[in-house]
Amino acid sequence: MATLFPSVFLSPAKTRKHHFSLLRSRSTLSFINSLSSSESNPLPSSVRALWDWFSKEGVISSKTPVKPGVVPEGLGLIATRDIAENDVILEVPRRFWVNPDTVEYSEIGKVCDGLNPWVSVALFLVREKLREDSKWKIYLDVLPETTDATIFWSDEELSELEGTQLLCTTLSVKEYVQMEFMKAEAEIIIPNRQLFPSAITLNDFFWAFGILRSRAFSRLQGQNLVVIPLIDLINHSAGITSEDHIHERTGPAGLFSWDLLFSLRTTVSVTAGEQVKCPKSSNASVKMMFIKVVFIQYGLKKTNSELALDYGFIESTPHRNAYSLTLEVPCSDPFFRDKLDITKLNGLDETTDFEILLGHPLPPKMLPFLRLIALGGTDAFLLDPSLRNSVWGCLEFPVSHANEKIICNVVRDACKYALSCYPTTIDEDEKLMTEGNLRPRLWIAVGIRSGEKKVLHQIDGIFKERELKLDQLEYYKERMLKELCQVGEKGESIPSESK
Ligand SMILES: C[S@@+](CC[C@H](N)C(=O)[O-])C[C@H]1O[C@@H](n2cnc3c(N)ncnc32)[C@H](O)[C@@H]1O
DSSP state, 43? Predict the structure, then answer.
């Protein structure tokens, strides 16, 4: 019966639809202890220059409760004094923001008019980076040349992702960026050489894209992306479980000015770090600083694939492991129009991605959608227009033995096929991870491929269990009969066939 379905019905290895929004959801602050030697991690001069610049501009002062520091995640923000709940950590005035408005009021504003906002900000960043006299030079010097985000991986590094959805997504994002670059080059850069005197390469454009994906926030008022110097030094921690700590307000924006401020606050109080003697050291002058690093939550709903793609790290939290199943009503289906109608009525598209998380149940609309796609034969009466408003309710429960068997077969076959595309087993991956000493990118690759396989085994397990219970499930006709009997017990009329 599985052959009833064309191959487009369920395509697990299909590239996940990527929403090329560069917006990061609102973020959260918190404070985690970290032990760090202040002597062994000197602050780069570029970061000191940025701090001095912001001091001179009156953006930070002796009252600012954080300072930049070198932390395991690269640069980060460190608490310098006790901070009370809901205190402001940093506030950066609008004149230091980099967003589509910044581009609009710049020399390239006119030629970038109408461009996709992220493309215009990317062109702006690259152009400023290539200028010796850029007003933004002090900030741009602090930005990393690259991260461990998968768009920056070599072919050899990407080969470690063989079989994964993340590999497909990374390749399609790279293709998309390349296409946008070629378009921008042909339509904006080449026709306006006087504005872009230095050659801009695809690698430059990728750098800017990577910067935006890993550092841009979404504005609270209005949805345009924005990069905020200094605030973008904040790192992510799995330990932070809330996302709501960014505010915008109008306030003092320097020595004599008033402006819109992008403001980062905390909802938890924090006591600043203190100097302690290194316990193993006999030399009393060697001291370790017990520091409080300020972290945010980059997005509670982001999967490990999204974290790896955007930021270049993954978490060990199980539910960050996900697998996306793409379900589609095939246009060759004899009931295509009816099924599409029902799909739309219930808020789904003809092709819908269902993200399944490790340790979580299937998304609620997945089983009804599967049953709808599989609907045919003697069950096709449920597609009658007179049942249009009630059919989804029926699909939330098993329809018929045949229908349920089809969905089990199709999903299990798809899982088996997807699992056969990974060159390693979960055991092999876990052995690599426990042996340790993996380079960061290999660690990410191994974590991603083992996470995806775990989710596929979980999905397969769910449908295997269903398959074993096919004879015990209650189907539509039995449910209808039961309902009729209940009506009968209440003394109402019973249709003659049921008597
Ligand atoms: C918004 S920036 C934060 C500042 C950054 N650490 C730096 O050195 O400029 C985001 C980047 O920081 C790093 N990062 C943030 N949180 C991290 C974490 N929990 N684990 C590993 N890297 C992290 C990643 O490279 C990520 O792309």
Answer: P
51, 66, 73, 314: residue to mutate for ligand 1 pocket, most atoms within 8 A of CB:
73
The residues, ordered by sequence, that sit 6+ positions from 274 with a Cβ below 8 Å of its Cβ are 290
Q: Among residues 19, 75, 62, which one has the least CA distance to residue 295?
A: 75
Which helix (DSSP H) or strand (DSSP E) does residue 161 occupy?
A: none
CB-ligand 1 contact for 236 (6 Å cutoff): yes
Q: Which tokens is 99 given? A: 């967003």
Average pLDDT over residues 264-268: 75
CATH hierarchy code of domain 30-97+228-296: 3.90.1410.10
Same fold, 2-19+315-468 and 100-226: no
Q: Does domain 100-226 have CATH number 1.10.10.1450?
A: no
Classified as helix, coil or strand, 447 is: helix
Which of 39-43, 147-151, 216-220, 434-438 has the highest mean predicted lDDT (pLDDT)? 147-151
Catalytic center residues? 298
Q: Can you tell me the distance from the alpha carbon of 420 to that of 448, in angstroms, rounded to the nearest whole number?
A: 16
The domain locations on the chain are 2-19+315-468, 30-97+228-296, 100-226
**What does the angle CA 322 – CA 328 – CA 332 come to, to the nearest 5 degrees?**
160
CB of 93 shorter than 6 A to ligand 1: no
- 372, 460, 373: which is closest to 416 by C-alpha? 460
Closest atom of ligand 1 to CA, residue 311: 27
On whether 141 is known to bind a ligand per the annotation, the reply is: no
The residue written with tokens 């980060």 in the block is 76
Q: How far from 286 is each of 257, 283, 394, CA to CA, in Å? A: 44, 6, 71
Q: Which atom of ligand 1 is nearest to the CA of 295?
A: 16
Give the residue from 289, 201, 295 showing the smallest Cα distance to 245. 295
What CATH number matches the domain at 2-19+315-468, 3.40.50.200, 3.40.50.300, 3.10.129.10, 3.90.1420.10? 3.90.1420.10
User: How buried is residue 364: exposed, middle or buried, by Cβ count under 10 Å (0-12/13-18/19+)?
Assistant: exposed
**161, 162, 163, 168: CA torsion to nearest 10:** 70
* Residue 155, pLDDT above cutoff 90: yes
Measured CA to CA, the distance from residue 8 to residue 101 in angstroms comes to 43
Q: What is the Cα gyration radius of the chain? A: 28
Strand locations in 178-269, DSSP E? 217-218, 225-226, 235-236, 246-252, 258-265
- The two tokens of residue 443 are 């660690």
Centre a 10 Å sphere on the Cβ of residue 349 and count the other Cβ atoms it contains. Answer: 13
CA distance 21 to 223: 10
Q: pLDDT for 181-232, tens place per residue?
A: 999 999 999 999 999 999 999 999 999 999 999 999 886 666 589 999 999 9
Work out the mean pLDDT of the chain and round it to a whole number: 86
Using the predicted structure, report yes or no on whether residue 499 has a pLDDT greater than 70.
no
